[in-house]
Automatic annotation (TrEMBL):
GO MF, one example: translation release factor activity, codon specific
Record InterPro entries: EF-G-like_DII, EFG_III/V, G_TR_CS, P-loop_NTPase, PrfC, RF3_C, RF3_dom_3_sf, RF3_GTP-bd
Gene encoding the protein: prfC
Protein name: Peptide chain release factor 3
Tr-type G domain mapped to chain residues: 10-277
PANTHER family: PEPTIDE CHAIN RELEASE FACTOR RF3 (PTHR43556)
Length: 524
C-alpha cells in the first residue's frame, strides 16, 4: 500500500448509483470510469449488454439473458480518492441483492430522467437509502432533451420522495437550446458544447455573467437568473450536515450522454460524499473504520461464478482495519476460523486478485459453503456481530413443487440452502404446507429454478400466483383463519410467523377497515 492505512481509509468513497431503468445509470458509470482513467473511451459502449467492464458472464443465466445478475463493483482513483461504485441492477434483474447492496455503501447517487421525473424503481431504492440515513446526491439527467421544468423536478423530489433539495447548479435552456448550467456552487456558468478556456464563465457579485456574452440576451439566461434568484430567496440553504444525514440532497443538472456536467458533479460529489462510516453491532456498539483490527460483513453471495468449479463468492464490505491476503478471520456465527487465501476484487473487466484492501472496500471471498448473507467476519481477537441486514417485503409469489416427486428430499434441501443464502424467501400455506416462494424481482425465481436444476438436480414446477401485498402481524393471537377471503390468504414464513398475502392495496385497506384491531406491518 502506498499510504499509511488510515490515510488509505480516508481516501475511500463507496457508493451506489440508483435509478429507474433507462435513466442513464450505465451511461453515467461509463463517464465516471472514463474520468477515473479506468476506460479510455468517453463514447458510450453501444449495446451495454456486451459492455466489457460492467457485466460479468459468470452465470449461465447471465449469458442466456445477456444481463448482469450480480451487482458488480467498479473501482478507480480520482483526485487522490479511491472510488468504489457498487452497481445496483435494474429491469427484471432487480432483486433483494439490489437492496442489500445499499447496505454496503456510504452514499448514493440518484439518477433521474428529467423528462420522466421520479419513477417507481427510484422510489423503492430511495426508501432504502433514506432508512439508512445515507447522503443522497441527485443528478437530473438528459438535459440535452426537452424535459420537465427544473423547478417542477425539484418540487417532485420534495413531494414524491419527501427529501429537501438544493440546486448546486441550474440549467440554462433545455434540449436543443441547452446552453449550459448556472453553477451556484462554484459561482460560474458552465457552457455546453464549448470546450477549452471559455467552457467556464465567471459570475460577478450580483450573480450575473461577469463577461460580455451573447447568451445574456437570450430568454433562457434571463429565465435561469430569475429562477436562481427565487431559489436564493425561497429555497433551502446548502447545509453540509444535513447533506451528510441524508436530509438534503444536492441536485445537479446535466447530461451523461453528452458528458455535460459529469466532471463537475464528480468533483463536488467526492468533496461531500463521506469516507467510510462506522457500523453498528448487534449490541449497539459502533465499529470505527479506523479501529485497527479487520472486520466486515457479507452482503451478498454469488454462486457458481465459474460453473467448472462450482464456486461461490461472498462479497464483504470491509468495515474496519485492513485485509491482507492469507490472513485468518473468524466467523462469529459459527465460531469458525478461516484462512483467507483466495480473494477476488472487481477492477474494470478483470477479476483481479486482491492482496490488500481497507475499510470501505469490497472484497470477494471464495466460499465453500461457510458463509451466509449477513455474516460478520472479524480478524484477530475480535468477537462481535454486526446488526442483521434487513429483510425486504417480497412482492411476487410462486407456488413451487418438484416435477418428480421422488426428488422431494433434494427439493427441500435445495430450497433450504437457497433460502438461507438469501436468494429467495420461503413461505408455506397453512395445513396443506404447500411451498410458496416470494421475491422482490422476477429474476430471483429464474435464478432459483436454474440453480435447483444445476446444483440440486431437481426440476421444479412454478405456478405464478402474481404480485401480493405481504403483511406481518403484531398480534398474531388475535388472527383467525376466517378473516381471509377471496382477496387474501394466510401463510407462514420460514420462522413460522403468520403473514397475510393481500391481492392488492385495495384488499389491504378493506381488511384494515374490517379488522381495525389486527396490527399489520411490513418489512422494508
Ligand atoms: P440505465 O443504465 O439507467 O438503464 O440507462 P442507460 O445508461 O443504458 O441509458 C438509457 C438510454 O438513455 C440510452 O439510450 C442512453 O443512451 C440514453 N441516455 C443516457 N443519458 C442520456 C443523456 O444525458 N441524454 C440523452 N439524450 N440520452 C441519454 P438507448 O436508446 O437505450 O441506447 P443507445 O441506443 O443510445 O445506446
Amino acid at each position: 500500500m502506498q499510504k499509511p492505512i488510515n490515510e488509505e481509509i480516508t481516501s475511500r468513497r463507496t457508493f451506489a448509483i440508483i435509478s429507474h431503468p433507462d435513466a442513464g445509470k450505465t451511461t453515467m458509470t461509463e463517464k465516471l470510469l472514463y474520468f477515473g482513467g479506468a476506460i479510455r473511451d468517453a463514447g458510450t459502449v453501444k449495446g451495454k449488454k456486451t459492455g466489457k467492464y460492467a457485466t460479468s458472464d459468470w452465470m449461465e443465466i447471465e449469458k442466456q439473458r445477456g444481463i448482469s445478475v450480480t451487482s458488480s463493483v467498479l473501482q478507480f482513483d480520482y483526485d487522490g480518492k479511491r472510488v468504489n461504485i457498487l452497481d445496483t441492477p435494474g429491469h427484471e434483474d432487480f432483486s433483494e441483492d439490489t437492496y442489500r447492496t445499499l447496505m454496503a455503501v456510504d452514499a448514493a447517487v440518484m439518477m433521474v430522467d428529467s423528462a420522466k421525473g421520479i419513477e417507481p424503481q427510484t422510489i423503492k431504492l430511495f426508501k432504502v437509502c433514506r432508512m439508512r440515513g445515507i447522503p443522497i446526491f441527485t443528478f437530473m439527467n438528459k438535459m440535452d432533451r426537452q424535459g420537465k421544468e427544473p423547478l417542477e423536478l425539484m418540487e417532485e423530489l420534495e413531494e414524491v420522495l419527501g427529501i429537501q433539495s438544493y440546486a448546486m447548479n441550474y440549467p440554462i435552456g433545455m434540449g436543443k437550446e441547452f446552453i449550459g448550467v448556472y453553477d451556484r456552487f462554484n459561482n460560474r456558468i458552465e457552457q455546453a458544447r464549448v470546450e477549452g478556456e471559455s467552457h467556464f464563465l465567471p459570475l460577478n457579485e450580483e450573480g450575473e455573467l461577469a463577461v460580455e456574452h451573447p447568451m445574456t440576451e437570450t430568454s433562457y439566461y434571463k429565465q435561469a437568473l430569475e429562477d436562481v434568484l427565487l431559489l436564493n430567496e425561497a429555497g433551502n440553504e446548502f447545509d453540509v450536515d444535513r447533506v451528510a444525514k441524508g436530509e438534503l440532497t444536492p441536485v445537479f443538472f446535466g447530461s451523461a450522454l453528452t458528458n455535460f456536467g459529469v466532471q463537475t458533479f464528480l468533483e463536488t460529489f467526492l468533496q461531500f460524499a463521506p469516507s467510510p462510516q462506522p457500523r453498528k453491532t448487534k449490541d449497539e456498539q459502533l465499529v470505527d473504520p479506523y479501529s485497527g483490527e479487520f472486520s466486515g460483513f457479507i452482503f451478498k453471495i454469488q454462486a457458481n461464478m465459474n460453473p467448472a468449479h462450482r464456486d461461490r463468492i461472498a462479497f464483504v464490505r470491509i468495515v474496519s482495519g485492513n485485509f491482507e491476503r492469507g490472513m485468518s478471520v473468524t466467523v462469529p456465527r459459527i465460531s469458525k476460523s478461516i484462512k483467507l487465501s483466495q480473494t477476488t476484487q472487481f477492477l474494470a473487466d478483470d477479476r483481479e486478485t486482491v492482496n490488500e484492501a481497507v475499510a470501505g472496500d469490497i472484497i470477494g471471498l471464495y466460499d465453500t459453503g461457510n458463509y451466509q448473507i449477513g455474516d460478520t467476519v472479524v480478524g484477530g481477537k475480535l468477537n462481535f456481530q454486526f446488526e442483521a441486514l434487513p429483510q425486504f417485503t417480497p412482492e411476487l409469489f410462486v407456488r413451487v413443487t418438484a416435477k418428480n416427486v421422488m426428488k422431494s428430499k433434494h427439493f427441500h434441501k435445495g430450497i433450504l440452502q437457497l433460502v438461507q443464502e438469501g436468494a429467495i424467501q420461503y413461505y408455506k400455506t397453512l395445513h396443506t404446507e404447500e411451498v410458496l416462494l416470494g421475491a422482490v424481482g422476477q429474476l430471483q425465481f429464474e435464478v432459483f429454478e436454474h440453480r435447483m436444476k444445476n446444483e440440486y438436480n431437481v426440476e421444479v414446477h412454478m405456478e405464478h400466483i402474481g404480485s401480493k401485498v405481504a403483511r406481518w402481524i403484531e398480534n398474531e393471537a388475535d388472527v383467525k383463519e376466517s378473516m381471509t377471503g377471496q382477496r387474501s390468504m394466510l401463510v407462514k414464513d420460514r420462522y413460522d410467523n403468520l403473514v397475510f398475502l393481500f391481492e392488492n392495496d385495495f384488499a389491504l385497506r378493506w381488511f384494515g377497515d374490517k379488522y381495525p384491531d389486527i396490527k399489520l406491518y411490513n418489512l422494508l
